[in-house]
Amino acid sequence: MLKGKISGNKIRLVRRSFEIVGDVVIIEIPDEIMHIKDLIVEAILKKHKHVKTILRKTGEVNGVFRIAKYEVIYGKETETIAKEHGCRFLVDPTKVYYSVKLSGERERIAKQVKDGEKVLVMFAGVGPYPIVIAKLAKPKVVIGIELNPKAVEYFRKNVELNKVSDVVRVYEGDVKEMLLKINERFDRVLMPAPHSAEEFVYLVKDKIKVGGIVHYYTFASQNDEEKLPKVVKKIFEEEDMKVEILKVKECGSFAPYVNRYVVDLKVVDISD
To answer: Is residue 171 domain-shared with residue 214, that is, in the same domain?
Structure first.
């Protein structure tokens, strides 16, 4: 759509892909071509007529609340409703973390959950993992813990919006503190914080049942993918959990030659 409107040198700098969250578009535009942003906006709106706001990403996901930095280059309203797997999520990408790109991964996990399971989701955000699991499977309970107060606010609203309050429980606070108040073991634990999940592995020991499943997310170089099973196994064994690696799966890129991975593992024994 931009061919003929800008030079070949400039068009090579235009990102070919972008993320659509509800009716909000998130796109990267290099500084070198910011002077043609109006042409880029025009092309997006011509193709996606429902879009009300376009955000330019100016900084990567960062901080304890895992929020990226954006500037509004079209529109005004940044709150939107994203839809996936029959669920609806009220979300504002400028205030909370939410990625459409993980929709398939959430479905994959939900399809593994057996009837009556107790599931723990650390770093639950606005609730996509807990809610998709509650809607697509038949767990007994799904507990989601989130630190970001704004994300918790959206999480509570999304539980009501999707009518899963009988299954999903929302805890606000630091995972390390909240788990001290939860006196039960789970059949499945999700750790969807690839930046820092390793720091919280020690908490799993007292919360997972023997035979339970952990979904551990991390970033790693493509060159280290084959080493991941051994690396992750060692991390858990150092916390007195004997584990069996079930699967290693790439679930999105993070940087050139660096991907997000999930390691599915079974806890086969726990030492005192």
So the answer is: yes
The CA distance from 184 to 181, in Å, is 9
- Domain boundary pick from 45, 78, 111: 78
Domain harbouring 52, CATH code? 3.30.300.110
State the alpha helices, DSSP H only, in the chain: 8-11, 37-47, 103-112, 128-136, 149-161, 175-178, 201-204, 228-237
Q: How confident is the model at residue 241 (pLDDT cuts 50, 70, 90)?
A: very high
Total domains in the chain come to 2
Two tokens at 118? 């107790």
Judge if 112 and 195 occupy the same domain: yes
CB of 50 closer than 8 Å to CB of 72: no
Rounded Cα distance, 160 and 180, in Å: 26
Shared-domain flag, residues 240 and 117: yes
- pLDDT score of 66 more than 90: no
The per-residue pLDDT for 9 is: 78
Instruction: Please give the residue range of the domain that contains residue 59.
Output: 8-78
Taking the CB of residue 72, how many other CB atoms lie within 10 A of it?
14
- Tokens matching residue 223: 């060159």
Domain CATH for 161: 3.40.50.150
Q: Are both 163 and 258 inside the same structural domain?
A: yes
Which pTM value belongs to this model? 0.93
Q: What average pLDDT does this structure show over 12-34?
A: 92
d(CA 18, CA 26): 6
The set of long-range contacts for 108-113, using a CB threshold of 8 Å and a minimum separation of 24, is: 108/249, 109/133, 109/190, 109/215, 110/85, 110/135, 110/136, 110/137, 111/136, 111/137, 112/188, 112/213, 113/137, 113/138, 113/139, 113/188
Q: Are residues 134 and 73 in the same domain?
A: no
Tokens of 158: 């999304």
Looking up tokens 């535009």 gives: 29
